[in-house]
């Protein structure tokens, strides 16, 4: 839907659903496109033409997990392979079959991604890796050497950019249920033992969803776990 300043609402399109969150990303007013992923499919809404189109390019992933916009590219993460695919510059309807990135520094499949500062972060279930745009003509994104992080993600939709860094519900080879934030390329624990005990009482932590908001000068990281009676909120300003 599109909600106008007058509070009128107009339906703009219908997506396939699978119980997982939708992602919506914009290439800005100059590009006038919204890239939407839902139910494994990708869609483009053109803000000028008011057209809602499913992406049918043969080079688009057959089942996409999530999407974002970074450095003039729409990026689609394949749920099947963990590879990430790039669109043409600022055009989410056209995808190049050669512009596909694969994380090779760790063996677990990439299940989530986010962007913060000038980095694209790729998360596996045990590890994470920041990448950057090197400007390489054959493929622009490269891993930042020496920054492999041995803390992965336990819930793909728990990772968000907030306060110029990344927050996520973690998992690694020893277990999961700790909330981390990136301090540069070093993960810093922000959850307490009491919070982690409470999270451990829930089932299917991989279904947790995070979002952020600001109120009265405070930034909040909100973690919703469907199987828990309580939603946990982290105040960035007061820790």
Structure description:
Helices cover 5% and strands 49% of the residues. It has helices at residues 28-31, 193-200; strands at 2-3, 9-10, 23-26, 33-38, 41-46, 51-54, 64-70, 73-78, 84-88, 91-101, 112-116, 119-123, 128-133, 141-143, 152-153, 160-162, 165-172, 175-183, 186-189, 209-215, 218-224, 232-235. It starts with a strand and ends with a strand. The mean pLDDT is 96.
Give the overall shape.
globular
Oligomer: single chain
What fraction of residues sit in β-strands? over 45%
What is the first-to-last residue Cα distance? 36 Å
Count of helical regions = 2
DSSP E strands, number: 22
Short description:
The chain is built from two helices and 22 strands.
Task: Label this structure with key terms.
239 residues, mainly beta, 5-stranded antiparallel sheet, 4-stranded antiparallel sheet, 2 helices, 5% helix, globular
